[in-house]
Amino acid sequence: MAAIAAPGFVYAQQQAAAQQKPADKTPPSEVAGIPVNYDESKVGTYTLPDPLTKLNGQKVKNAEDWTKNRRPEILNMYYTLQYGKVPGKPKDMSFNVFDKGTPAFGGKAIRKQVTIYLTKDTSDNHKVDVLIYLPAHATKPSALLLNASFSANSNVTDDPGVKHSLMWTPDGKRAPVQGGGRFGKMNIEQFIDAGFGFATLCYTDFEPDTKDGYKYGIRSVYNPSGKFADDEWGAISAWSWGLSRVMDYFETDKDIDAKRVALTGASRLGKTTLWTGARDTRFALIIGSVSGEGGAALSRRNYGETVAHMTAPSRYFYQFATNWSKYSADPSKMPMDGHMLISLMAPRPVLLQTGSTDGWSDPKGEWLAALAAKPVFELFKETGPTTTEWPAAEDESQLLHNEGYFMHNGPHGVLPTDWPRFIQFMKKYL
Questions:
Q1: What average pLDDT does this structure show over 128-140?
Q2: Are the beta carbons of 108 and 189 closer than 8 angstroms?
Q3: I want to staple 380 with a disulfide (CB 3.0 to 4.6 A). Which of 192, 229, 261, 347 is the partner?
Q4: What is the DSSP pairing of strand 197-202 with strand 127-135?
Q5: How far apart are CA 390 and CA 370, in angstroms?
Q6: What's the CA gap between 289 and 287, in Å, rounded?
Q7: 186 phi and psi, to 5 degrees?
Q8: What is the mean pLDDT of residues 287-315?
Q9: What is the pLDDT of residue 393?
């Protein structure tokens, strides 16, 4: 089979190239035939739904009332109206730990590699390869960061012992990934040096990130007809469901502290990360990077990307439940918004990381969402933003809160300087 270039790896190349520029390119004034606004004076007025007012009109009384009554209401909104419902844990899932612990990084780490078969079929059809590094001299199970990546595992590190990755081809088969220099490489040792493990996987192992990806990915198992009800899962829920299956494996690994697992991802994987943290509370800490529209940013703000842009037939409608497109003309009719997605993390720590020149993802909209979610964290006596003023780029004053926010000086994506901040956040809360 011929080698192919991984779509996620191309994305990583684009991200790396962008990081060499002082700012993003001039943003488009129109996308998919829909105007794009970058003028704060044209954002419009809006009223956010109150996360602490239940559907019966009563106010949430305390943390117990939130957990038992209001949180399930909001979670159901996202299941049925935005991301789509997902199936439970598959009974026929299995794990193949084919690399049980090999010294890496000069002996400071132990490398593990696991193939998780998502069905009883142990071919390459429905599986995910997970690459794990743990501190070699740990005296107890390690906390770790799980990275939902655009890059294939064999392109994340120079470690020659990493299994060469396969990626989906346009005709629904898997082929070896081409190499690609140093684009997308991770400095994994910084996590080991801080006492944390680091695990990574490529999100398209669960399902290709294309309009017809459902034909080949995990949704084809549960929806073989290719027909989806308006409230059934889109691709983001498929990727999120897959991340929960990785947590299922972590719970079986005696070297991993499954109660201290952080999860991160950027852009569409930032949305996926936040949605996974909302629906699977086993993840102890969430870092959602540049998640923008459909993630942490407020949809009611007419700024940058909008629901209409996301759900346009030529763009990313397939990532969401069909119901979400019904709000494209008027997001104010949604019973929820980005602040309520953030609120579903409470009381667990969540960090929103954005970029100052990333107007498309509306970093200010993410900040305003964090402010609006703060009352939920306060129910649990946890800290949120300590000011209403939008922090400047590189201002770390709002970083180390239970509901944290940090905006780097630069474009869409995760910069090399962001990872040490993630480690700071993990050190405080894990």
A1: 98
A2: yes
A3: 347
A4: antiparallel
A5: 11
A6: 6
A7: -110, 145
A8: 98
A9: 98
The two structure tokens encoding residue 94: 């299995």
For residues 177 and 155, the answer to whether their CB atoms sit within 8 Å is: yes
Residue whose token pair is 């439940």:
321
Q: What is the pLDDT of residues 20-68, one digit of tens each?
A: 334 456 778 999 999 999 999 999 999 999 999 999 999 999 999 999 9
How far apart are the C-alpha atoms of 50 and 7, rounded to whole Å? Answer: 39
- According to DSSP, the β-strands at 142-149 and 256-266 are parallel
Q: In degrees rounded to 5, what are phi and psi of residue 152?
A: -65, 150
Question: Which residue of the set 149, 165, 267, 361 is catalytic?
Answer: 267
Based on the residue annotation, tell me whether 325 is a catalytic residue of this protein: no
- What pLDDT is recorded for position 17? 34
Exposed e or buried b for every residue in 48-73, given b needs 16+ CB within 10 A?
Answer: bbebbebeeeeebeebebbbeebbeb
Catalytic residue from among 126, 401, 408, 412:
412
Q: Which fold has domain 49-429?
A: Rossmann fold (3.40.50)
To the query of whether residue 165 is one of the catalytic residues in this protein, the response is no
Tokens of 192: 């080991």
Q: How far apart are CA 408 and CA 396, in angstroms?
A: 9
Q: Are 283 and 306 in contact (CB under 8 A)?
A: no
Assess contact for 202 and 174: CB atoms under 8 A.
Answer: no
Long-range own/partner contacts, residues 16-23 (CB < 8 A, 24 or more apart): 16/183, 16/184, 18/411, 18/412, 18/413, 19/410, 19/411, 19/413, 19/415, 19/416, 21/411, 22/410, 23/357, 23/410, 23/411
- Residue 321 and residue 129: Cα distance in Å, rounded? 27
